[in-house]
UniProtKB/TrEMBL annotation:
Occurrences of domain Peptidase S54 rhomboid (ranges): 123-255
Protein name as it appears in the record: Membrane associated rhomboid family serine protease
GO biological process, one term: proteolysis
InterPro entries (alphabetical): Peptidase_S54_rhomboid_dom (IPR022764), Rhomboid-like_sf (IPR035952), Rhomboid_protease_S54 (IPR050925)
Subcellular location as annotated: Membrane
Organism: Xylanimonas ulmi
GO cellular component term of the entry, any: membrane
Signal peptide: none
Region (Disordered): 1-25
Similarity remark: Belongs to the peptidase S54 family.
Primary subcellular site in the record, as a coarse category: membrane
Pfam families: Rhomboid
Length: 292
């Protein structure tokens, strides 16, 4: 092969082929970005956004995700999936309550649209749940106490139970409080507040703490004090507290004492069974008073 290069007006012939300049490597996920760092696992280039520190070197985000999928699932003693980071569900629920409270203060009629009373729930069943995210606008201590209690209990229960079980516990406890109001209170009694949910979390903590070898004396004392207050202070729905507490105790006990090999199954079947019981109770009550 005749390879010639002009140098200062002369032509130099060499025996070696002239190499063509190669294009710089680019990130497969971001082709517009040059990436000289390669993944230690797959060898592909990875831009800074797609790089993840590994035990040795750097891995790309795709390899890290694939490794996480193939890694064995780590669970807590009661079957919750171990996750790092903040309790997402707890903060989400607190955020929803805060937004709803702001709307109550600024939008006329907002509370009336979503509060719950047995006479309203028969035709607008979503009120059984939405009332749990509303609070008294005349007493700020109502939302402050409930959000504090939700934060404290959620910090413990959400990591132990896992997000799915914890979400089911919160939703069903809130529904249980509304159902108890239907069964035990006046048909016209209107209620708002996350107290049913909070009492459900209190109730669930008792069997879970005992299952983990801890003492439940303080939480039992807190339940007793708040239970007495509900009977003595006007304007507090002890029925909602009781309903949430019963649901929380049932779910907490079931989650805590499920056989190890069947914890995942119990995590789905138990909430479904509790939800079915609540629905049957609602239908039976409305049918008994002749509104269905």
């Amino acid at each position: 092969m005749d390879n010639r290069r002009p140098v200062e007006g002369r032509t130099i012939t060499t025996d070696q082929p002239i190499s063509q300049p190669q294009a710089p490597p680019v990130c497969p996920r971001h082709p517009d970005r040059v990436a000289y760092v390669r993944c230690q696992r797959c060898g592909r280039p990875a831009c800074p956004e797609c790089q993840r520190p590994a035990a040795v070197g750097i891995q790309c985000v795709d390899c890290v995700r694939d490794a996480a999928k193939s890694a064995p699932r780590t669970t807590t003693a009661v079957g919750g999936r171990v996750r790092r980071g903040r309790p997402t569900v707890t903060f989400t629920l607190i955020g929803i309550c805060a937004v709803m409270f702001a709307l109550q203060l600024t939008v006329p009629g907002w509370t009336g649209r979503f509060m719950y009373a047995p006479v309203l729930g028969v035709h607008e069943p979503w009120r059984f749940l939405t009332a749990a995210f509303l609070h008294s606008t005349g007493f700020f201590g109502h939302i402050i106490f409930n959000m504090w209690a939700l934060y404290v209990t959620g910090q413990f229960l959400e990591p132990v139970l896992g997000r799915a079980r914890f979400t089911a516990l919160c939703v069903l406890s809130a529904l249980g409080g509304s159902v108890a109001v239907l069964l035990l209170a006046s048909p016209a009694q209107a209620v708002v507040g996350a107290s049913g949910m909070v009492f459900g979390l209190f109730g669930a903590m008792v069997p879970v703490l005992r299952r983990l070898g801890g003492s439940a004396a303080q939480i039992i004392g807190l339940i007793a004090i708040n239970g007495v207050i509900g009977f003595l202070v006007p304007g507090i729905s002890w029925q909602g507290h009781l309903g949430g507490l019963v649901v929380g105790l049932a779910l907490g006990y079931g989650f805590a004492h499920a056989p190890r090999e069947r914890q995942k199954l119990f995590g789905w079947l138990l909430p479904a069974a509790v939800a079915l019981v609540l629905v049957v109770a609602v239908v039976a009550k409305y049918a008994a008073v002749g509104v269905l």
